[in-house]
Write a structure and sequence with these properties.
The chain is an all-beta fold. The protein is built from no helices and 26 strands.
């Protein structure tokens, strides 16, 4: 077990990291994978890695994850704190697959290795009858989002919600969708039919913002939740700050 010895003046402190570790719980929706990294309080450092299954490429990695192409792994951290995190990534098959495909991952809390709990398999996307697929276009700080919602013929009712990024202005919400100010979620429905719909909205970046915006949404078909797939993030160029300067100059010449 590792420890840290801190010398402060004439006092000696022995800092011993937590040995109980924590937990990592995986959730799989289609080809979208989320791992909740849950360290115990008092954790000094944490990290996580997930193996990339054979026959798949990684099309998206969130939370500053990195792809180790040599070892076919996705790696996050180390994070030098005890904060919980949601680690997200998306896979894309290089060919057809019939599944199920096993997933393997491992967390490390102060050197204590912990296997991942939760969902352990990918299910072929062909088996998902109802779906919601997002496409994103960006220009000049304005993000246009389209979500195609397709329900199976037996669906009685469905709804959709998307999480708007903090401080972004929301506009052009179609199909009577509405922004809930407290939660920051854009909500549509419920629609009491199985008709396919294209639900759209626009986001405008605040002045001074520049970076990657990650989007997340969930559709509900007869109470069964399905995560939105497709485009997951978009890069936004730095938006300029508008400054109004008033300058008065008076010259007296004799």
């Amino acid at each position: 077990m590792r420890c840290w010895i801190l010398l402060l003046g004439m006092s000696l402190f022995l800092a011993v990291p937590s040995v109980s570790g924590g937990a990592a719980v995986r959730d799989v929706e289609g080809l979208n994978v989320t791992v909740e990294l849950l360290p115990d309080s008092g954790t000094f450092a944490q990290a996580y890695e997930e193996a990339i299954p054979n026959g798949f490429d990684v099309s998206f990695v969130g939370t500053n994850g990195l792809i180790d192409a040599v070892n076919r792994k996705i790696k996050w951290g180390p994070f030098f704190d005890s904060s919980a995190r949601s680690l997200r990534y998306q896979l894309s098959p290089t060919g057809e697959f019939s599944g199920p495909i096993a997933l393997r991952g491992e967390a490390s809390f102060d050197g204590v290795q912990v296997e991942t709990d939760g969902d352990s398999f990918l299910v072929p996307v062909q088996s998902i009858a109802s779906s919601a697929t997002r496409t994103i276009e960006e220009g000049g700080g304005t993000i246009s989002v389209r979500v195609i919602v397709s329900a199976s013929g037996e669906t009685l009712a469905y709804a959709l919600e998307e999480e708007a990024p903090r401080d972004f202005a929301v506009s052009m919400v179609n199909e009577s969708g509405d922004l809930e100010p407290v939660s920051g979620k854009i909500k549509w429905g419920p629609f009491f039919d199985a008709k396919q719909r294209v639900l759209t909205y626009q986001l405008t970046a605040p002045a001074g913002f520049g970076g990657v915006v990650e989007l997340e949404g969930t559709a509900s078909f007869d109470g069964i939740e399905v995560k939105v797939v497709g485009d997951m993030s978009v890069s936004v160029a730095l938006q300029g700050l508008k400054l109004n300067l008033g300058l008065s100059l008076s010259l007296n010449m004799n």
